[in-house]
User: Fold this.
Amino acid sequence: MPTDTKRIRGPEVSQSLSRFVCKPETAVPSDGTRADGRSRDQVDVRPVFVRCGLVSQAKGSAYIEAGNTKLMRRSGRMRRICNAGGCFADMRFAPFSCPERGPWIQGSQEKDLSLMVLESLQPAVCLHKYPRSQIDVNVMVLENNGSALAHAITCASLALADAGIEMYDLVLGCSIRQDGASYLIDPTFLEESGSCQGSGENQGSLTVSFLPNLNQISGLQSDGEMGEGTLTAGVRTCIEGCYKLYPVVQQALIKAVRGAAPPPSES
Assistant:
């Protein structure tokens, strides 16, 4: 039988690399301390790194990193269409972004998240300025360690602003995980997956899209069962978390605008 010279033969005896990977914790402590050092029932979002204009091939792009959650956005591509204009959002997870490797084909979860991103962005974009034009927004989740939807909304808003799309305001996203009487703001993947879920009432998650200058909510997505008072308090907590992210987003956008501005002419 002929030998395949293009295939590298592996060793006869080998071990899976997963045996050498440190296994994450299987449970979240129920006291006031979280795995990353933050406290429960406190508006304590993860440190955020934001940068605009990273993709030179796109008219507008943004990169956001919150803990181990990393996303990249590119937007601003406008297409002329015959019918009424609008926005198109496409959100995908890289195959290596989650603990379990996923396919390249867009699944039902990614389609639902894309629709949520679109519904959150549309109220902030001046669509009447772009008749019969479609604005494409694409997001790629490079690493998912929780709160991917909230950070995708923030990153998409930054990419649109970096592309020069006229907007009424920036859109910021924030999410919480409700665990009975306590809550976890900006939850990690382990906290989102339900390992901190206990028995009883008020178990769920909430994501809010907020326009800080207009003081308006452009999108709200809730899962689980929460009472009216708990849901109202959760929305206020998410709004407070958005206000904490706003100065970081502002500085990143200002830095991108100054970097793109031409140098002053010497007279």
Summary: The first strand starts at residue 48 and ends at 52. The helical segments are 108-121, 148-162, 189-192, 228-260. The CA atoms of residues 83 and 260 lie 34 Å apart. The mean pLDDT is 81.
